[in-house]
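FORM 7B: Structural annotation worksheet

SECTION A. Query
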Amino acid sequence: MKQRSALMVILVMLTFFVISFLTNVLGPLIPDIIDNFSLSLGLAGFLPFSFFVAYGVMSIPAGILTEKYTEKPVLIAAFVLAFLGALLFALFPRFSVALISLFMIGIGMAMLQVIINPLLRHSGGESNYAFYSAMAQLIFGLASFLSPQLYSYLVHNVHAGNSSFFISILDKLVPENLKWVSLYWVFTLITLAMVVVNWVIRFPKVELLEDERIEVGHAFRELLSNRFVILFFIAIFAYVGTEQGIANWTSKFLQTYHGVDPSTQGANAISWFWGLMTLGCLLGMVLLKIFDSKHVLLVFALCAIITLLAALLGSREVALKAFPLTGFFASVMYPVTFSLALNSVPKHHGTFAGILCTGIAGGALVPLLIGGLAELIGLRFAMFLIFITLGYIFSISIWAKPIVSNATVAEKIKDLFRKQPHA
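SECTION B. Predicted structure
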């Protein structure tokens, strides 16, 4: 690989890390935000809503902007938006500002998600794309695991007499009763660094494949007339709603029903939710080489339903283990659903991918509905809403009819025997 290409692959991996680091830390913060700003559970539901609704707003426009202005300026603009959003809340830590801040960061993250996959394909080469995509998912999971750990570290060290240079600066910037706001100063620093890095690196010219282009005219209308496009859009909506519904409300659930400290065991449970999701991806990669993806999805969705039921109805010890396990079983849902979707239409895959990415807005609505229902029936039974979205994901394994199925070892062996000359 050329040096420039290797550098771009590293940059894309770093971007995946930053996206995950900023996106998946909100869950551990929710109990602190509720307590410090005296919020109801319904109001707290607007926090993930503000972030993930940005995906519904920006996914398709980001693709159009990238085709018009190329990757570098759009990447820089995305990180500038995220920087301004993080800085705004770090300077003015109030609930109303948090909603604006999260929306700005969400817009930036939506822009990045659209750009980095074609950039990775070009930089690493098409023959290496599958390998680098898998590596990117592992890095994404690692960042999701580490960000709650950083939150826990900062909450226990800021204004605690820690003499390190970094913590002493945060002591001066962060109010003593809002230690968790220190995380937003870290986000500010990270996003500013990414603006500088993207500014100085020279980008290659990326030629989008036909299937990576987003068309809002005939292709868009043709796709929307296909019922499988709508069904898979709902599927992505349901998956991200499931993921974020669990990740955003686990810590508050553990605090409410089991007296768990959100900054220690609560944060650790969410950290392992993402960590086990990463391990599940590794196992999933192996299983998808052996079994049909629909069968893998069926088993993992069923196991996720069982573990979530145990988490919501079980004892403190059971809940602390079962919530992270739901992450393990949710691990294959997004890649399998996305691949089944793209393999269910013969053309316009770029436009279809844009429609599917818009479905990430499910992460906005489901946590919001859980928060609203919690005001009426309590958080435990409000989280039963997730069984509806998990049930829909389970149903994909029954109704999906891909044009092309995933290649398995068994199929390759059969093909090999078919090609053998007959005696």
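SECTION C. Observations
The two ends are 45 Å apart (CA to CA). The mean pLDDT is 87.

SECTION D. Sign-off
Analyst initials: ____
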